[in-house]
DNA sequence: CTGTTAGCGCCTTCAA
DNA sequence: TTGAAGGCGCTAACAG
């Protein structure tokens, strides 16, 4: 069973255990545990504590995570359930979550990423196996049943109940609608994603509502494609002609990845942006700033979304009984760049 | 200590344990263990096995990962140590590693990401705490001492010893040198990263060597900046004038993120690409294809790097004693797009 | 083919 | 202030 240390003599690279530290410091394992876990206060004399600390340093002792987890019931790990971490937005959420969880747990907590490339099912086994103390969900509808008590925080999923931190996408969408209305646009194509997530429904609804309110006879044509650069590029290249022919003068994509793909597709199709067609997106990923033309987009605080989510999750883990409370809502705002301009006259 | 189930009566949401399954199926825990771990063959009768399986399904039993880890010494988790997962290259490596580890372990293995934003130290505590069975390193020089026996696979770090999977960046760099030489360039600025990693040194050396070999009187000016979109953009905007004045007609960046930043910076400075300055990078991240102009770059198989690395790591974990063997080297090749063109005449 | 049992390493209550 | 000891849930010898 044991696979290190051989039988009898001290193997070559056996990690030291609490007993070893105790022996070297001349104390019991309980004392070591107290010192290690910062519970020495009032239980262990300063002198003893120092001896233990010395022994730990000398031996290079590090508490075994599995053993501790088994004993305490705490794994000190949380998962981030996300779709496609290759998407810069997701990557930033992850980065924010990583710093957030570290901060909220004094560096003792860690992030386990559960990804799902493309349309595959995410691998949620760790959740069931209690590998994590909680999960951050940025991928609606993927939490497995069977663990109804697990601490969960939903990210940017307004339709979800429970603990959540969301984005005020509606406000941003309305700003964008006003911006396009001001530029004289009357007919815009709304390029949605293929995922039935509430955040996307909200983006579309708020935009369409405000646009219709501001522009008499406004037309919003619905279209959709995967949240993927190449997919959006090909889609746009193929539809460009039809969009213009239908009288549309702008394209609003549900995400920047799609918007950037559209930019590339239109470029390939010889459609000038914003000369012939304006383009805008949501997210404000870093690359939106360096595209040509730079992308007008509704900036969403991805990093903070992840950060706040992690901090909130840490609280929920700490006190699972506490009721959800008001959902945290992070602001969104329009960033106007070069991809949107005055509406052009129709082709004919 | 226990925090679920209260005392005595069956708590509200206590997860079922192996004993519960055993009781329900009328067998011992050992039998349950065998069935769960696929070791029933020849030990448990098919009928018994089915009863156990039924009980597992009925109870919704899932083996506790911590307990299993403690008992087996296997954590079923590996870590990916990377710098800035916000970089698309890193994100793709991670995506590849995730599928690779899942594949190599039949879905029982998982990925733990250890990130390090900016210049911070990565959080390698999980490694010391034996939270993982091995680690994939894409961040040279960050593995902590104290666990010399830990299975490790180095990614794209030719200077590292041991198990590794690398990229043939030299071949790609030489192709790029030839491409620029053919276009008539004689003086190019090499925009390196600020990190002293062997892969970057190799990119530069191979490029410079080949360029000098092909172009009589070739000049390669060294410059550097952080691997960050904004940093590269600002750097380029500021240096653009100087670069052109010095006679340089092309800029080769160590990574695509930097190259795209340069593109943005030059655009802002009113320098035409490739009209006045050609630009090229390394990686071929998805966004390189949709920039304007599309970026000429040395394509590096990020996804496969992660995938192969994970598969190799799984093998090393399986058989830690096996010697490293020939390092795996993945091919790199030049992808010519619109950001490079004929060398222009000097300004004066 | 199946049950019993001794750890895995740590935490924590209870005595001393 | 410190030590002894039970238990966390599972795996894998070892008996039967």
From TrEMBL, chains A, B:
Question: In the UniProt record, does the keyword Cell division occur?
Answer: no
Q: Which residues form a coiled coil?
A: none
Q: What keywords sit in the KW lines?
A: DNA-binding, Transcription, Transcription regulation
Q: What molecular function terms (GO) are annotated for this protein?
A: DNA binding
Residue stretches making up the HTH lacI-type domain: 16-72
Against SUPFAM superfamilies, the record matches this protein to: lambda repressor-like DNA-binding domains (SSF47413), Periplasmic binding protein-like I (SSF53822)
InterPro entries (alphabetical): HTH_LacI, LacI/GalR-like_sensor, Lambda_DNA-bd_dom_sf, Peripla_BP_I
This chain belongs to which protein, by name? LacI family DNA-binding transcriptional regulator
């Amino acid at each position: 069973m044991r696979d290190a240390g051989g039988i009898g003599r001290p193997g070559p690279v056996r990690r030291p255990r609490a007993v070893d530290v105790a022996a070297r410091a001349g104390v019991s394992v309980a004392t070591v545990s107290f010192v290690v876990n910062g519970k020495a206060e009032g239980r262990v004399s300063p002198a003893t504590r120092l001896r233990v600390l010395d022994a730990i340093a000398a031996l290079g002792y590090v508490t075994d995570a599995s053993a501790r987890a088994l004993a305490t019931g705490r794994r000190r790990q949380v998962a981030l359930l996300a779709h496609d971490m290759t998407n810069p937005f997701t990557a930033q959420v992850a980065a924010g979550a990583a710093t957030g969880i570290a901060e909220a747990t004094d560096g003792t907590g860690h992030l386990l990423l559960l990804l799902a490339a493309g349309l595959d099912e995410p691998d949620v086994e760790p959740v069931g196996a209690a590998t994590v103390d909680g999960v951050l969900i940025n991928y609606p509808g993927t939490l497995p049943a069977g663990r109804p008590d697990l601490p969960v925080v939903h990210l940017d999923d307004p339709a979800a109940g429970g603990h959540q931190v969301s984005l005020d996408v509606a406000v941003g969408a309305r700003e964008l609608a006003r911006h396009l209305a001001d530029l004289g646009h009357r007919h815009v194509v709304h390029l949605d994603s293929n995922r039935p997530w509430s955040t996307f429904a909200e983006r579309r609804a708020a935009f369409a509502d405000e646009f219709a309110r501001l522009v008499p006879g406004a037309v919003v044509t619905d279209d959709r494609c995967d949240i993927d650069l190449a997919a959006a590029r090909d889609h746009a290249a193929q539809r460009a002609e039809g969009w213009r022919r239908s009288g549309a003068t702008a394209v609003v994509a549900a995400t920047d990845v799609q918007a950037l793909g559209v930019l590339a597709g239109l470029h390939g199709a010889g459609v000038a942006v914003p000369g012939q067609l304006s383009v805008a997106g949501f997210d404000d990923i870093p690359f939106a700033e360096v595209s040509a033309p730079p992308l007008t987009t509704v900036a969403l605080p991805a990093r903070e979304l992840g950060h706040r989510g992690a901090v909130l999750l840490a609280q929920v883990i700490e006190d699972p009984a506490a009721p959800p409370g008001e959902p945290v809502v992070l602001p969104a705002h329009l960033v106007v760049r070069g991809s949107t301009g005055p509406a052009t006259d129709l082709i004919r």
